[in-house]
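Following the same procedure, sequence and fold were stored together, as reproduced here:

>
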Amino acid sequence: MVAVIVLSVAVVILVPVGFVVSFFYVWGKNHENLRFPSDDVTLSSGRPAAATGRPVVEVLVASQAAQRGTFTVYVEFRDARGKGKGEGDSGPAGKRTVVFKDLERGGTETEEVVGPVPVRGRPECVVADAMFLSTASAATSRPGAP
């Protein structure tokens, strides 16, 4: 009787643990080569424009996507206000969106983006978000397509 109880408890504990371990193993295998669009985006260091004081940054997209597509990049500007570094020491200075249309795989493109409001001192510029939408036709995106 003790053996049946021990076996039942072992099954009740080990089966859920086995499912959890299997889930994370499969999750890891499915996502091991996953790339995010933000991995293809680089920002130059921000600088204030001499005439207006608004932040200026150069956005570079170097596409490593599997197919051609459009990148939409959301750039966030922050005003350092002469304080220490870090988001807690800076104030918001607006956001801008830049779109790179129909970029080929391996293609690069740059665009200068100007922030909406003037800043004091050196602005902080970060990629708030980046999205990729494939523009390849279904025939060219299928493996083994002619």
Observations:
- The radius of gyration is 24 Å.
- The CA atoms of residues 54 and 117 lie 5 Å apart.
- The chain has a mean pLDDT of 84.
- The longest strand covers residues 91-103.
